[in-house]
Amino acid sequence: MLNFSFYRNPFVFLTTYYCIGLFLGTNYFHWEYALISSLLTLLFVLFDWNFRDYLGDFISKLTIPCMLISLGYWSIHLSEGKSNSALSFSNTPVTIEFSIEELEESSANSTRGIGLIHQIQANDEPINVQEKVMFYIDSSSSFKIGDRLIATSYLHEIENKGNPGEFNQEQFWRNKGVLYSTFIHAQDLKWIDYDAPSSFDQKILNLHTYLSDVIKEYLSGQELALAQALILGDKSLLNQETKSAFSSTGAMHVLAVSGMHIALILQILLYIASFFYRFISRKNATLFIVLLLWIYAILTGFSPSVIRAVFTFSMLAIAQLSGNNYRPINILFFSALVLLILEPLFLYDIGFQLSYLAMIGIYLTYEQIASWFTPRNRVLDFFWKGTSIGFAAQVMTIPLMLYYFHQFPNYFILSNLILLVLSGVILGAGITLFITWKIPLVGQLNAFILFVSLWLSLVSLHWIEGLPGAVAYGFHFPFFIVPLLTLSAYFLILYVPFSRVWMFSSLLFAILLSWIVLLRFDNMSSHHLVIFNHSKLTFALKNGEQIHCFVDTRPQEISKAKFMLDAYTKCYPGNIEWHAIKGLNGSFILGNDTITWQTKEDEKVIRWNRKNIPIQYSATHKSDGNSIYMPWIEHPKSLKHGAIIYDKEDFARK
User: Fold this and answer.
1) Where are the alpha helices (DSSP H) in 7-153?
2) CB of 312 closer than 8 Å to CB of 359
3) How do residues 8-19 score in pLDDT, each as one tens digit?
4) Domains defined along the chain, listed by start
5) What is the distance between the alpha carbons of residues 352 and 311, in angstroms, rounded to a whole number?
6) Which string of DSSP letters, residue by residue, matches 341-379?
7) Which pTM does this prediction carry?
8) Which of 206, 254, 322, 472 would be a feasible disulfide site paired with 408, CB 3.0-4.6 Å?
9) Which tens digits make up the pLDDT trace of 260-278?
């Protein structure tokens, strides 16, 4: 067992205290509590300062947690205060002046990017602001980063729609400092200036473009897209089919440049540097490689997972050079504390959570898992160690992934084993290609190796995705199960079988797992009617494995609702059959279910289970108070507050 005393691993405790403060500040912030916590901390500090000789270190043990919790309590509030803006122009067209900070490659139909708003003009009153906005332009464009534009459009706050299984995009973009979105017609957009980036930013941009051009010289299609994602952290070229293959096989983490990538790159660079130790000392070579890792982090977008990985491995490399005794788990938590002090909202970033949990799982359980089997064959030993690392990471992350994504990839061990080998080859060949691409034959050989490894990765993942039962859907359960399941799995691995702690953990693990399975079965076999928050009236009747989805639109426009239903079926799995009900009165019979709909002037009445559900299209229409209002209508029962589910048995709102 690991010794987790404060003096051996202080940052494990300090970071935990700080995270508790962040959580409390997010969910329970009140000025009275904030002042009380600050005064209590100050009181403990004064007592510790003046009465240490009488009380020993008892007060110190209370002072440190109180200081960190109080710091976290205030930090999250101040951070959210900077992010919360009073801007609200959802119903009024405004003229915005913004500069492009990020830009995805344009498609034939649209361009998407992130801009920084400098000025908003509404009702002839200019307002100077500094807010980030996600913009969409309804055509391809030749704009570049640094362009300053003026556009007339509507500015909307990014909000979740509240449909079952949907991704929490509001929190995701808030963590990136982006609170607003806007859709711009090309004819309403005008270029006015170019803000040249700083010399350093321009060099990084030029380097990224140069490396991207090197890859494009030899690759195309999804091999190019995957190479850009794995090597440069640019996922903009990946199509939905490839993303789905990675998600369904439990390999989505490979697409995000994180600890595995940084560790492989570090090992590759250290191996290359070993040939030059006669010209440069090991210490200087390591410091130079650490500098390259930070440049690479900036190059790939400086995401929380990249920052965590680079910072942690930098600390580990420097600690190894110093020759001092160090503990990786302590350094890992130190890096988390530094990042969370700089940006408290990182705590709620999914990538940040999963990357740290994966590393914690590796540090805490890898050695124990690897000891379960000791192969004598070197090749088998390599694959077993790779499997152990993957399993150790999954122990801590699977409960959270089930909670966020509502699915479980049954063949994740197989996919991770394949990518463990191929991703190393891809990164090695990619880095070597950047160095040797102008050398005849050598560059072509590296490019060929890179292409083959990328092609094999794609073929393997699509094959695994097509295996029977590749993905299990329907996991939808309360959040409190996540930490309990994670801790019970950890104790099951770490403690001796049939000891008291192991027996208690086994019982808890079995109860929680049974609960999740029962909830999943209930979701899969559920019988309900759901009305979605969508621009077009969309409702679905679920009866066990059958889902009949009705959309108030033309048949050729049904595809716009499919993304929403894909998220829904992750929580409530089933086979979907689509029905267009544009301008029709009709009925549908499924077994004992009869559902009818009738169109009136400004409402559509759905009748199911002997009850009418009026859907209001006009804000001025008088109703009996039992109606549901479309999402653009302000009303307590508006669909803008989320989907409404009616159960077959009680017909009550969930």
Assistant:
1) 10-27, 31-55, 58-83
2) yes
3) 778 888 888 888
4) 10-83 (no CATH), 89-196 (2.40.50.140), 349-410+475-517 (no CATH), 527-647 (no CATH)
5) 13
6) HH-GGGGG-HHHHHHHHHHHHHHHHHHHHHTT---SSHH
7) 0.81
8) 472
9) 677 777 777 877 788 877 7
